[in-house]
Amino acid sequence: MKRPFLHAPATDMLELLEELAAFSTPGPGVTRLLYTPEWSRAQHFLQEKMAVVGLEVHTDPVGNVFGRLSGSQDSDKVILTGSHIDTVVNGGKYDGAYGVAAAVTAMHYLAVTFGPPLRTLEVAAFCEEEGSRFPLTFWGSGNVTGLYNGSVAESVSDLEGITLMAAMESCGLPNQGSRTDHDDQGDRLMNSARRDDIGMYVELHIEQGIILEQSAQQIGVVQAIVGQRRFTARVIGTANHAGTTPMGLRQDALAGTAEMLSALEQFAVEAGEPLVATTGRLEVFPGTSNVIPGEVQFTLDIRHSEAERLESFCSRVMTKFGEIAARRGLKLELEQTLATSPAPMNPALCEALEHICQEQGRSFRSMVSGAGHDAQLFAPRCPAAMIFVPSRAGISHSPEEYSSPEELAAGLDVLTALLYKLAYEES
Amino acid sequence: MKRPFLHAPATDMLELLEELAAFSTPGPGVTRLLYTPEWSRAQHFLQEKMAVVGLEVHTDPVGNVFGRLSGSQDSDKVILTGSHIDTVVNGGKYDGAYGVAAAVTAMHYLAVTFGPPLRTLEVAAFCEEEGSRFPLTFWGSGNVTGLYNGSVAESVSDLEGITLMAAMESCGLPNQGSRTDHDDQGDRLMNSARRDDIGMYVELHIEQGIILEQSAQQIGVVQAIVGQRRFTARVIGTANHAGTTPMGLRQDALAGTAEMLSALEQFAVEAGEPLVATTGRLEVFPGTSNVIPGEVQFTLDIRHSEAERLESFCSRVMTKFGEIAARRGLKLELEQTLATSPAPMNPALCEALEHICQEQGRSFRSMVSGAGHDAQLFAPRCPAAMIFVPSRAGISHSPEEYSSPEELAAGLDVLTALLYKLAYEES
Predict the structure, then answer these.
(1) Which of A111, A224, B185, B199 has its Cβ near the most Cβ atoms within 10 Å?
(2) Does one domain contain both B91 and B216?
(3) Where among B340, B375, B408 does a domain terminate?
(4) In chain B, whose CA is at the least distance from the CA of A259?
(5) In chain A, which residue's Cα lies nearest the Cα of B271?
(6) What is the pLDDT of residue B2?
(7) Best of B208, B244, B396, B401 to disrupt the A interface by mutation (most A CBs within 10 Å)?
(8) Are residues A248 and A201 in the same domain?
(9) In the structure, what pLDDT confidence band is assigned to residue B186 with cuts at 50, 70 and 90?
(10) How far is CA B413 from CA A246, B171, B360, in A?
(11) Is it the case that residue A3 has pLDDT exceeding 70?
(12) Range of A327's domain?
């Protein structure tokens, strides 16, 4: 069956993006941190906007905002689409907001053009994904999928010492009418944020990488979101005089670290895509030009879309680091600070997206998301899909973040077609 | 000719070392920075001490203290011996002070035992060598040898903004009777600190390295003080997302730096002793665990006792660094921040020291000094020699700095014998 020509008005979406970008604390780019006045105003604005375009608006105790088009045939399971509404400090106006603005625009267009869907559609504006204010990520989608309970809200604080719970209360959350139960251990739950009615999840997002731009393709069909391992390493040697200590009598923590980092890079290149391995932070002690470094501390960030390969790569690196340290008489301490599993997207949804791109005559490619997204919380629970559009020069989390109106419109068209197929077509 | 058994009283020297160590600002170890009240008291104490043991005391405009035994035959050229009286912050009690205390003790012993020398002997307590208060080194011996003129004293300041000149004035320097002339450009000269009567320079010092301890030898006969090159390097790549940027599309400044540091170490090991090459300070920007480093800044400290080999090693390193940067699409900026020439010690004096060690039945070895010393300022101008004694675990510039009374006494005996040979024996 050939589906009708679908073309939601991109101008509406672009206007909505600009409107959202205005909810920002002063400074370069967009800064809209969780539970700040700017964030609160943005979520209220979105509620009004969704209501105006005919969506049934509801919110949850953590401040996620949903807009619903109830299905005429089947309303038990929801086809959810959207992204997050928070930003990093001095971020761009596309990361997260694009997926929300496009979903609102697509659903408005579909409702106006085709009436109510057969199956229920909802747009989600998740309250938080970035982890920029509090030391946790995915607070929005994590509450919906049951990753978090309310106890976390009392135990984590921002840099000013404000607890997550206090920040929520300053925004009038948990909001009226929400249930805040306690479990057997007395932990406060936010059960009303948890949802078991999500049947599918679709997220449109900017790539935040350079792959689509480099390969000159319009659409990325995400096959999986990578799993991550993060470690902190301490390499301990002996600080000593840079002039009076012969090369053969040194335990130079930095020379040992340099060998480790070269091995890490070599292994990563050998492993091939999509594996990436990065040391982003490194500190040398005592850090004086004429003293041999006695200690180096550094981070490791390793990602792959396949759990086994991620695991075996990390093992290979740890073994090699241990060998290097032992040979050099250095002490090595490694601590794992993060471990997330790869999240494969649903193959049938990926295939559907490829067909849509072909129908629309768009260039596209399969790819892996090296960054984390809300979709990875849904993927273990229901079929999930992600659509990427190009990011200029791969830049994100920066005021320089940019995708052209044409690129954004192409993503909107693909999302609209997928939502139509999922919610409107007879199965 | 067999020289008499010479054995200056080590207890006097050890007592003087303890007395000097008491002139310190509070805190661990010894802290006696240039032109502080502690420094001033130490230099006055030394003047009294030298006078008490029968030396003719004189000082110069920068606060160097000298004690003289005038020669009966030849008093035109002075055989100078000593070291510096300042310390680093929280330093030990041997670095510098040992060479002064041993020289005073040796000269006292020689005068009492043998009367006036044939040729003039002087002990020098140089005011400054370490560069711990002001951003310059060798202020004491540098004024005696003409490296500095008074203009410097008005242009450099300590961390509290006090100029070197103001600090001098707070100690009553330039002292009464000193001439402070101006040259053609109006620069203030401290001509009376400059001396053209130094015929020889001998310095006894702790090794500040681990070579003597490792080789279980009592005396190091220094063949040369290394020349140094210091550089700061900036490696500039592209900061990017650690998850979304494939390995093949990175300009990772830290990965490039790791390759450079590994090459540096490999080249240094290949070059062999006495070459040493060290990166002691390294900073990564932006320094976030999930961001590929866009820039790394680091220091290079390269030392060798032969000028040509030092030069060719630095050239080889610079060429290699350039190749690595170019291959990786990184920008490399190198700035030389220090260049000192190697200072060979006088071969005849080295030979005399070896004979003395043999006569005294002491184990000894030829070695290179990887650290800088006042002797390097005299070496281009007159025959110079340095004697090293072991430093426990090679530790210096620390309250842990230690050499045993026996090790210190052995150095004193060698110094005493050399001074006797130079000043008392018929040539």
Answers:
(1) A224
(2) yes
(3) B340
(4) B262
(5) A247
(6) 62
(7) B244
(8) no
(9) very low
(10) 28, 35, 8
(11) no
(12) 227-340
